């Protein structure tokens, strides 16, 4: 059996936002408490992590994560990247495989140089490998394909992992990328807020993408404090869902 766990579903601020007293930030609904966005795929005892948010340590603890087979990075923005140091507990006696773009590899080498070819205890030991867009690779039991998407003016990686598409921080999907997102079981897509944003899909844009690709299920993530879980879920059509932290969905093998 394979599964997908939402470790975090919030935007770069996290929810609640520091100092904010809005309806969502003060909500008593636990589904409105959101760490920064990250997910975990699990299959045949192999755990595949997408992004290391600043709360990665807390996400790992509350989900009971004790082993990690590999990591994928979408891009190098702090809310998806800065938890990298907490990978060290998973690679004390080995190099942990990390897959990403050339740009993110360069960022790792410049911002966290000690994780590359380092020695000694107490630091991560990462084997960073650059993925070529649209070329599937086997990562443990998973088939992984890097899917270029736009995040404002920045090209980043979304991923197809088996028959799940993961497109966080997305403002546009190029036509060639759309061709590689057909026949999905699940689409996970960022939906920042109701009205447009230059760097992220709105709820309406994310809904349009989900309708176009027509997977079996669509889950919205990377949600801001302008979106309350219950109210948004009540507005969505059949087959569309608001993800929340610690939600686990079962996938077809």
Secondary-structure map:
Layout: E1 2-8, E2 38-43, E3 46-50, H1 56-63, E4 70-72, H2 78-81, E5 96-100, H3 102-111, E6 126-130, E7 137-139, E8 142-151, E9 154-161, E10 164-167, H4 175-179, E11 186-190, H5 203-213, E12 217-221, H6 229-235, E13 240-242, E14 248-251
Share of β-strand residues:
25-35%
Query: Can you tell me the residue ranges where pLDDT is under 50 for at least 5 consecutive residues?
Result: none
Question: H/E series, N to C?
Answer: EEEHEHEHEEEEEHEHEHEE
Mean pLDDT rating: 96
The profile of the biggest β sheet is: 7 strands, mixed
| Reported CATH architecture | 4-Layer Sandwich
Q: Whole-Å distance between the termini? A: 6 Å
**SS element count, helices:** 6
Kindly give the count of domains: 1
Name the CATH class. Alpha Beta
**Cα radius of gyration in angstroms:** 17 Å
Strand order of the largest sheet: 6-5-4-3-2-1-14
How would you name the CATH homologous superfamily? Ribonuclease Z/Hydroxyacylglutathione hydrolase-like
Please tally the β strands and state the result. Answer: 14
Secondary-structure class: alpha/beta
Shape: globular
- CATH fold name: Metallo-beta-lactamase, Chain A
Folded structure, characterized:
The chain is α/β, with parallel strands linked by helices and 253 residues long. The relative contact order is 0.17. The longest helix is centred in the last third of the chain and has 11 residues, at 203-213. The protein has one domain (2-251): Metallo-beta-lactamase, Chain A, CATH 3.60.15. The chain has helices spanning 56-63, 78-81, 102-111, 175-179, 203-213, 229-235; strands spanning 2-8, 38-43, 46-50, 70-72, 96-100, 126-130, 137-139, 142-151, 154-161, 164-167, 186-190, 217-221, 240-242, 248-251. The model has no long low-confidence stretch (mean pLDDT 96).
């Amino acid at each position: 059996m394979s599964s997908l766990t939402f470790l975090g579903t919030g935007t770069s601020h996290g929810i609640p936002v520091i100092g904010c007293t809005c309806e969502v930030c003060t909500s008593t609904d636990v589904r409105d408490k959101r760490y920064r966005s990250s997910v975990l795929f699990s299959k045949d005892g192999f755990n595949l992590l997408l992004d290391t948010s600043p709360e990665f340590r807390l996400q790992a603890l509350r989900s009971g994560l004790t082993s990690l087979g590999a990591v994928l990075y979408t891009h190098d923005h702090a809310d998806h990247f800065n938890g990298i140091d907490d990978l060290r507990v998973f690679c004390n006696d080995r190099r942990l495989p990390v897959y990403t773009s050339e740009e993110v590899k360069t960022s790792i080498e410049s911002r966290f140089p000690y994780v590359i070819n380092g020695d000694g205890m107490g630091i991560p030991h990462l084997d960073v490998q650059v993925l070529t867009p649209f070329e599937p690779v086997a990562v443990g039991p998973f088939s992984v394909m890097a899917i270029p998407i736009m995040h404002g003016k920045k090209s980043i990686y979304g991923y197809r992992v088996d028959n799940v598409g993961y497109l966080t921080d997305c403002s546009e999907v190029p036509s060639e990328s759309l061709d590689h997102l057909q026949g999905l079981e699940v689409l996970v897509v960022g939906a920042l807020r109701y009205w447009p944003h230059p760097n992220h899909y709105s709820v309406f844009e994310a809904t349009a993408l989900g309708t176009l690709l027509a997977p079996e299920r669509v889950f919205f993530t990377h949600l801001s404090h302008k979106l309350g879980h219950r109210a948004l879920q009540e507005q969505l059509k059949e087959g569309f869902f608001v993800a929340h932290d610690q939600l686990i969905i079962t996938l077809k093998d």
